[in-house]
Design a protein that fits this description.
It is a single chain. By secondary structure, this protein is an alpha+beta fold. It contains 7 helices and 8 strands. The protein has one domain. Strand 3 and strand 4 form a beta hairpin. Helix 4 packs across helix 5. It is globular. It starts with a strand and ends with a helix. 39% of the residues are buried.
Length: 185
Amino acid sequence: MDKTDTVVAIFSEHPAADAAVKQLASAGFALNRLSVVGKGYHTEETVVGFYNTGDRVRFWGSRGALWGALWGLFVGGLFITIPVVGPLVLLGHIAVTAIMAIENAVLLGGLSALGAALFSVGIPKNSVLQYEAAVKADNFLVMAHGTADDVARAKAVLGTLKPARLDTHAVTPLATPEVIALGAA
C-alpha cells in the first residue's frame, strides 16, 4: 500500500473554504488530491437541491454558487444526507472513498458514512469524530492528500488562510472493507 498523508483544515465560512481550494490549485496541487466536505444547505425558506446541466451541476439554496463552482473544478462529487449531520456535499478524493464505504456497507463502530470515509483514508477515529462534529456545526473541511512533502506544502498554503483548525495525519489508506473493519477493532 502507498503511504499517503492528509492535511485537514477547518473553515467556518464558505468563502474561506472556496479560497483554500483556489489557493491550493494555484500552488500546483492536483484537484484529484484535494477534498472538500460541508453541509449542502443552510436553513432557509427556499428550495434546496441540485440538477445536472450536461457537464455542470447547478445548486439551489444559499450556498448554490459555492457548491456549483467547486463541483465544476472537481472530477466528481457526492450529495448525501447523513442522519444527525444532515445533507452534505463531498467533493474530490473523499467522495470516492465515501461511495466505496456506503456501497460496501462499512459503517464502523457507530461512525456515519462521512466518518467511515474519513477513517478509510487513515484519519484516526478520535479525529474523525471531531471532524464530523465540525461539519455538523456548519464548518467546512478542506483536505489535501499526498506525500509528506506535498502535505507539508499544502499545510503551509492553508495556514496562510487562518483556518479554525489545521491538522496533519500520517496515514496508510485502508483499501478493503475487511481491512477497514479490522482497523476499527
